[in-house]
Amino acid sequence: MTFDAVIIGAGPAGSAVASALASSGARVAVVAGRTAAGVEGLSERSLVQLKYLGIDPAELGGIGAARRVGTWGADARPVKGVEWLVDRSVLAEAVRSRAELLGARYFPGTVTRSARNAATWRHRLVDGTELEAPVVVEARGRRGPEVAGPRLVALGQRRRFAAAQAAAGTAIRPFSGGWAWWAWRRDELWVQVVTLPRSGPIANRVRQAGAELPDLADALSQTSPAGALLARPAHARLGVAEDRPGWWVTGDKAMALDPMSGQGVYEALVGAKVVATAVTGVAAGDDEALARQFVAERYRATFGRGVRAATGLYAENGSIGDFWRTVGRAYGKLCDVQDETAARVERRPVLDGGRIRAEDVVVTPRHPRGVWQVAGVSVAKLMGCLHRDARLSIESAALELDRPPGDIVQALRWLQEAGVVAG
Ligand SMILES: Cc1cc2nc3c(=O)[nH]c(=O)nc-3n(C[C@H](O)[C@H](O)[C@H](O)COP(=O)(O)OP(=O)(O)OC[C@H]3O[C@@H](n4cnc5c(N)ncnc54)[C@H](O)[C@@H]3O)c2cc1C
Predict the structure, then answer these.
(1) Contact 142/256 with Cβ under 8 angstroms?
(2) Residue 208, C-beta contacts closer than 8 angstroms, at least 6 positions apart
(3) Secondary-structure class of domain 5-59+85-146+236-332 per CATH
(4) Confidence (pTM)
(5) Is 304 helix (H, G, I), strand (E, B) or coil?
(6) Is 349 left (phi over 0), alpha (psi -120 to 50) or beta?
(7) What pLDDT, on a 0 to 100 scale, did the predictor assign at position 334?
(8) DSSP letters spanning 66-90
């Protein structure tokens, strides 16, 4: 069977790409493997992205907002917030139904072989079905060659309360061997412990967490196991870029944050949108190498930010145990060595009205992906004007760049705040 694009993997990322491509008129096939069991807490930003896809959060199990409690850091600072509890399989199903509604065709099973044949990719599924398309989007989750953070593992277990709980909620707390997140709703408890997979049997780590955290012990004592203890890799990762024509990578396969961020689904959905834009642009004549560079730079920058945030979050608990110092140090080593030299202008791919093209951007240590425009003014051009004549008036710059003076003022303010030109 022939399509315009084959998507491998039907987690949130694969189905979001499928929705975007199908809604732009492409014939899309999605190969859907099994969704691993588990419960996740969705951030407000993830909900916005789901709504953008046309998914009402009320479809996601009807739980709604759950209040988060907990402590963090050596001073046991209170952690507060709200997250939406969702079953991983319910989320995958909701995004998948949306893509099907938009015309994507689903094929249950897994891809066992992919081979290039002239200008198309041919995929063989486990049941022998063959799918062919010039474009492949691989969204198989945390798999393949990677630049990786410390090899963390998450142990998760579904448990059952004897009686339903009055309100849904979640808790997060550090202990000496890792951190625990647990979520309750109705008569169900999901316990997740993130730890290093070494020094003794990892299954004991849930017991260890319970022994150190009285409120977790309390929750465990009120429940009995309703499923096996499942292990998932849980480190931040950046997939090694694929360089095969027509082959794109998205979701956790391309880049995954440490689960402590709570933004995994958000990043999967936003990354999927970027990849869909790149694929559509290339089909309409954009330069493929430039589009790939755009996508890769975006993932690299998000990974860099995520790793820096994780370094800080783990370091904060350094006094609690060796786990925290080891993981904080390992993430610290991964942080990009930032170029602290003066801001510079580079030719980079930018997104312009849904298309990707090369433009001069201003790159600074705080803006490693580069900034192209502020208030419609090219900051690289404005920087060039000011380097030529530091006393250039707003009116002259407005004339030279053909923009209203108010926009020049905004762009100038950005250059000053970024430390590119003197205030
Ligand atoms: C322990 C842990 C806890 C997390 N908690 C949260 C949280 O609370 N909130 C949050 O926002 N994010 C959380 N995340 C992150 C979130 O789960 C992921 O970022 C998100 O699921 C990524 O979506 P994806 O579509 O890229 O990959 P996945 O959801 O992993 O989907 C990949 C799909 O590809 C399929 N597949 C694999 N191989 C093949 C093949 N050969 N053929 C066909 N299909 C295939 C799989 O079956 C699977 O369905 C957590 C992650 C971890 C590890």
Answers:
(1) yes
(2) 175, 176, 177
(3) alpha beta
(4) 0.87
(5) helix
(6) beta
(7) 86
(8) EEEEEEETTTTEE--EEEEEEEHHH
Q: Is there an atom of ligand 1 within 6 Å of 42 CB? A: yes
Say how many residues make up the chain: 423
46 pocket-lining for ligand 1 (C-beta < 6 Å): yes
Cα radius of gyration rounded to whole Å, the chain: 24
Paired tokens of 401: 């760049």
Both structure tokens of 97? 């139904």
Q: For residues 287 and 347, what is the distance between their CA atoms, to the nearest angstrom?
A: 14
pLDDT in tens, 41-74: 999 999 999 999 999 888 787 677 899 999 988 7
**What is the atom index within ligand 1 of the atom nearest the CA of 263?**
11
Q: What is the pLDDT of residue 224?
A: 95
Q: Whose CA is nearest to atom 29 of ligand 1?
A: 11
Ligand 1 contacts CB of residue 113 (under 6 A): no
Task: From 140, 142, 249, 273, give the residue whose CB has the most ligand 1 atoms within 8 Å, as the site to mutate.
Answer: 140
Q: Look up residue 338 and give its two tokens.
A: 């930032």
Q: With a cut of 70, which residues of the chain have pLDDT below it?
A: 62, 199-200, 336-342, 423
303, 271 contact by CB (below 8 A): no
Q: What token pair was written down for 112? A: 């066992």
Q: Is the CB of 265 under 6 A from ligand 1?
A: yes
CA angle 45, 316, 240 (to 5 degrees): 60
Phi, psi of 321 (to 5 degrees): 175, 170
174-185 confidence digits (pLDDT tens): 999 999 999 999
Q: Indicate if ligand 1 lies below 6 Å from the C-beta of 264.
A: yes
Task: Give strand pairing partners of 362.
Answer: 345, 371
What are the beta bridge partners of residue 377? 374
Scan for tokens 């893509």, then name that residue: 99
The rounded distance, in Å, linking the Cα atoms of 225 and 416 is: 58
